[in-house]
Amino acid sequence: WLPRGPKPRSRRRWPLRQAVSMSAQMKIVKATEPDQFELDVAQAICDLEANSNDLKAELRELYIVAAKEVDVTGRKAVVIFVPFKLLKVVRKIQSRLVREVCEASQG
User: What pTM was estimated for this model as a whole?
Assistant: First the structure.
């Protein structure tokens, strides 16, 4: 005889981040846990995918490996690492992607 009742909830596999959706976490593929800046960049890509009809197809298959913010002559630059096989897709949408990610990282 087994007791009938609500099933126990399983533990989450990753810690919940503030205001980061599950789809944003799926946009990062790396062996270690992503830091908050990488999650913010992934969230900006997901927001762009959701709000842009012309880039939706290209952004659906895009994912990142890492993202870093570096200081270049007193200004901040965002470096986004993507796999080589997605480089052709990124080059097609690079100008729009750069503009949107910069707006998201500043705000």
Answer: 0.73
Task: Say if residues 43 and 49 touch (Cβ distance below 8 Å).
Answer: no
What's the rounded Cα separation, in Å, for the pair 41 and 64? 9
d(C-alpha 8, C-alpha 82), whole Å: 39
pLDDT digits (tens, 9 = 90+) for 7-39: 554 444 444 445 567 778 888 888 888 898 898
Write out the two tokens for 35: 């830091």
Length of the chain as a residue count: 107
Burial (CB < 10 A; 0-12, 13-18, 19+), residue 17, is middle
Nearest CA-CA partner of 38 in 47, 27, 49: 27
DSSP annotation string for 6-73: PPPPPPPSSPPPTT--HHHHHTB--SSPP-HHHHHHHHHHHHHHHH-SSSHHHHHS--BSEEEEEEET
